[in-house]
Amino acid sequence: MSPRHFLLLFAVCFVWGVNFVVAKWSVSGTPAIVPGFDGAPPLFFAFLRFALLYAVLAPWLLPVPKKPGPVVGAALAMGAIQFALLFLGLRYATPSAIAIVVQLAVPFTTILSIVFLKEQVRWVRWTGMLMAFAGAGLVVAKPAEISFTIGLLAGVGAAFAAAAGSIFVKRVEIMPIPLQAWIGLISWPPLLIASLVFERDQLSSIAAGGWWFVLALLFTVVLVNVFGHGSFYWLLRRYDASMIAPMTLMGPLIGVIAGVVLLGDPVTWQLVLGGVLALSGVGVVAARRSKARATETVIQRPR
User: Which residues cross the membrane (predicted)?
Assistant: First the structure.
């Protein structure tokens, strides 16, 4: 990989990593930054994200997919369900821990591929999956802190939703940017309905965030989705997935560092040991999976 393209990949991973902190602030607030802002309701924030994503990418909706079923399945799983759970998780857990837990999307995808796509898996990837789940288990296991644990379990749910969406993506016959547009269009209506049913004071909550909240929302859509995923797929066309996929682990590492530096996330032995185990296991699974199928679509993990 050329130095210029590595810097582009690093920029993508940096944006993805910092987004854990940006999203955490968006749904839980930080009085020191914006007094009186306690965060936007998570479901409503997810709705705003996908409504804006749809508005930005609407010109790419046409032509209409010939097989809409997989597109709808991918959009609901990777869009509405994944990010509803992700933002709920970030409401109650630290971005450092969430950044590690959501990487379970990679072994989850392998398991679902075994069940639904009859993919063959050898001992190396099984070992990687066991390492990933053991590491995530260490991070999640907090019996004395129930709310913290609930937040991380929501993060695990987001990882599973991303993995389920990747199974649908394998049957999608449109390019990544049009797929992003359809994810935006299909995701915002159910998220809006869910927010109206389960949440209150949505408009007053985001109004308290002022321009900082607007900037955070633009960051998650323009930089994370449009720039991040667009650049990532551009690089995938030029390099083997076996090279690119393991290098994306820079993203969660940056997320952990950003959480510790910017929000003061606690650094415990469980976070360190669990993070090393989980990310090492994910790296093994991603590298072996990509090597076996260099042309297959790399899954879109929660960002």
Answer: 39-62, 69-90, 96-116, 123-140, 146-169, 181-198, 210-236, 243-263, 269-287
Out of 163-172, 183-192, 283-292, which region has the weakest mean confidence (pLDDT)? 283-292
Residue 147 lies in a domain: yes
Mean pLDDT of 47-51: 96
Q: For residue 97, which of 40, 159, 31, 170 has the smallest C-alpha distance?
A: 159
Residue 33 lies in a domain: no
pTM: 0.84
Q: What domain count does the chain have?
A: 1
What single string gives the DSSP state of each residue in 202-251?
A: HHHHHHHHHHHHHHHHHIIIIIIIIIIIHHHHHHHTTS-HHHHHHHTTHH
The pLDDT, as a whole number, for residue 148 is 54
Which residue segment(s) compose the domain that 100 sits in?
3-28+38-300
Please answer whether residues 91 and 150 qualify as being in contact, where contact means their C-beta atoms are separated by less than 8 angstroms.
no
Distance, CA of 86 to chain centre = 7
